[in-house]
Amino acid sequence: MKKDFNEVIRKYIKNHPEERNKMKSIINDTISLPFFDDFSAGNSVYPDQTKWRDKCVFINDGMAIDPPTVGVATFDGINQYGFPYFLTSLEYTADTLTSQFINLDSTTFSTDTTVFLSFFYQSSGNGNAPDDGDSLVLQFKYYDDSLAAYNWATVWEANGQSLATPFQQVFVQINDTLLNYTDTFHLDKLTFFTNNFQFRFMNLASGYGDIDVWNLDYVYLDKNRSPHDTTILDIAFVNEPPSFLKNYQQMPWTHYCVDTIAEMVTQYPLTIRNNDILSHLVCYTTTVDSLGTIIYTYPFNTSSCFLIDTLSDKTDTSQIINGNPANFYFRPNNFDWAQFNIKHFLTETSGDINTNNDTLRYLQRFTDYYAYDDGTAEEGYGTWGYGAELAMQFKTTKADTLRGVYMFFNQMVNDVHLDLFALTIWSDIQVNNSGSTVLHSMIDQSPMYDTGMEAFHYYVLDTPQFIPKGTFYVGWVQDPSYEALINIGLDMNTNWDSTRLFYNTNGTWYPSELPGTVMIRPVFGASATITGIKPDNSLSNSIGIYPNPANNAIYLKWTSKDHIPSSDLMTEIYDPAGRLILSQTGYQDEINISTISEGFYFVKMSDRNSSASFTRKLVISR
Length: 622
Fold this sequence. Notes:
With about 625 residues, the protein is mainly beta. Strands 1, 2, 3, 5, 8 and 11 form a six-stranded antiparallel β-sheet that branches. The longest helix is centred in the N-terminal third of the chain and has 9 residues, at about 5-15. The chain is globular. The two termini are about 30 Å apart. Residues about 25 and about 525-540 have low confidence and may be disordered.
């Protein structure tokens, strides 16, 4: 099932509001050969603006399957702001990726037959496959001297076939003979060879939302090439980095601290690719740091090295025991949160043309929720039918109070935000049977989109539930009067559904047979409090705070301005020790937190003229 907006792009824009202004500016510098991009540089969801003129495609490391190197450009039906282009089944031009101006002046290149553009492409990957009639198109810009004008010529096209395909490499020569079909009457007036040559990729889509997915990688334009030039000296990581936790991507810090070693992986896989024609000895190192101090290094005394054959992969399974310290685990502290920066990096190979793909970074975060998913929904999962039930299994390491649930619902073509379900907690489900034990049911809930943490919506339980140590289930029961599909985000880079997800549409509970992980996150622990302050939640339904985790700014959103005059609103940020870090009076859409260090804080919103207040936990992460 598809999802119909991109929560990663929308979160990125929230955390980087300056990007909205950058979208209006265009870099006009002409660049020289060679042109190369494997989409591994930087942390932006947008393409490198020194190489590309637009921001339509999604730069990521999760949508592709087995790419040449980590990082791809994904084409779909989502615009640069993370929203669908059109609500239509007709074919339309969706994403476009246009190069900056490139100097291919006629004096130097018009007789050069060695100028080639090569790239790798894949249909579907972890996303929705393009249908027959959908396509990925490559165009070159040419100059028509007779009209003194530029135009675009299609020089290559791939048609979708509703299938997922592996990456394939394509070579296209920059040669004016490609213009033969464009205008047979004055070919001598048409040429690609100008000092502001450009090329562009675009996808033609025929649906709504995150559909008709194509992945692009390893775009390379240069002279002195041929179609046999299929190798390049580039040693690179291939996939996104793993979590160091065995059972979850994230979990509550206080729960992790109950049995630290039991929650750690004993090994973690890293796939490295040799894209060269020769074999190479490849070495890498892993480090973990806490607040700038390295607390773990793998391996113990030197880099981990092995030989990789030409055009081959090597997946090394690193043993935690062989690092320093051996049998590493994250050390408990006195707080109820923690985060650690994990870095994997290759020792530079002499002559390697691209070092951007030689480093992987992963933020291991512990707050107050359990998460199987990595935060990105490549697909969607849904239940259909009157009274349909869906339940995700979790196992707690200690008895604690369940306060709420994060859920990431995918917006669909049909608006279902008025369709109701009961948010349900079970203590037991009998698979291949109808039996189940409901702990709590909160009726008359509906799918909510793009609020709270990333694109997750936080459902606060009307009555907090005590959960004993062990197994419980979280999910929903659809209202008996609604049959419409309720669609929840599906992370395709983790795969817990086959052992943790269960559904009931006909009176019997069955385990899911589809790959991936649905995006449900139960939240535990006491309500947010600050030393010496008693919170009053009477304002909590009037004001929203996002994003969380935050980067350089947080934003306030009124759901009701009738509660108090905005001039009477007081905003305060405290550290865990209760020290006041920031204070301001009056309502502002944006609060600058760029000068506050990374870590865990409390945000208190209060009415200066009454005792009404509420407090929210805030994580600042950069």
